Amino acid sequence: MTSPFEIGIFTFGELSRTAGGAFTPPAARLEQLLEWARVADQAGLDVFGVGEHHRPDFAVSSPQMVLAAAARETERIRLTSTVTVLSSADPVRLHEEFATLDLLSAGRAEITAGRGAYVESFPLFGQDLARYDEYFDDRLDLLLAARENAEVTWSGTTRAPLQDAGVHPRPLQEKLPVWIAVGGTPASAARAGTLGLPMYLAILGAPARFTALADLHRKAASAAGHPAPRLGVTSHFHAAETTQAARDAFFPHYAAYFAENMPRGGRLDRDTFDAWANPGGALFAGSPAEIVDKILWEHELLGHTRFLAQVGLGGIGQRETLRSIELLATEVLPEVRRVIG
Known about the structure:
Residues 7-299 form the Luciferase-like domain. InterPro entries: Bact_Lucif_Oxidored, Luciferase-like_dom, Luciferase-like_sf. It comes from Microbacterium tenebrionis. One of its GO terms (molecular function) is monooxygenase activity. By secondary structure, this protein is α/β, with parallel strands linked by helices. It has a single domain (6-340), classed as Luciferase-like domain (TIM Barrel). The chain is 44% helix and 17% strand. It has helices at 26-43, 63-71, 91-104, 121-124, 132-148, 186-194, 211-223, 243-261, 270-277, 288-302, 318-340; strands at 6-11, 47-50, 78-81, 84-85, 109-114, 151-154, 162-166, 178-182, 199-202, 231-239, 284-286, 306-310. Helix 2 runs parallel beside helix 3, helix 6 runs parallel beside helix 7 and helix 10 (288-302) crosses helix 11 (318-340). The two termini are 15 Å apart.
């Protein structure tokens, strides 16, 4: 049984730059991520996620391997990819790996399937970028087929067909949960709803403009005869005891992250940062009370039942990140659940 409202953390494992311009060591970053998982689990958060990139400025190319390590460091927190770049993955192998993760974690594995914000995996794995959408549609169909049955008969356009092929091991859960990550396209939201799949919205702009996607997701599910699927929201995040402390500590790191990693990059000034973090903006940077208010406001807009906070952005210190995670678990989560019920 899921909680009425779930809150968790996730990361892409991005690497910050040293004073000399080199990237911080990936091994050290991975150790930090595992500590985040342990603290989140012990403090009572619901979900821990890691994303997939194939670039020198990220430490995680295989979420399932990092999550398997986290499975042995934690006891109850759910473990998800955020996201798996399904278009350039083998869905059969992917299901086998996450089923193994599910067994190692006593039934806590989830997959979040998406196209990914970057396309470096396509040339890396010898795929034609012109078939970007075709790959995702085809491989989502195969992933769901492998989820449904241990013996799979399937044919598509992007890989060889299967005839009574065994997909093993099977997960401890009856079926692996599969979420769809949506950046902002109506077609993606409608597809998730039509398939009856839960969906994440990555909210980096004005939250109000995502209400149409949330409504489309639910309407498409209803039209296809599915119960209303779950909706999750992901956002950039940092919390401290006071709003001023959170913003002062986070701003220089977030500005560096913005310049390095955001699709359009550029310089982020403090006034813009504060505007994004104010009520009505997409950025979660403030006191626990302010974070609670923003989650509840977005819940009224979107009706979501899971919030994932992207933590540790821009090389902010481990101590500050761990404290931010603890505040999310001990002060934000209980209050959100109390209000929503």
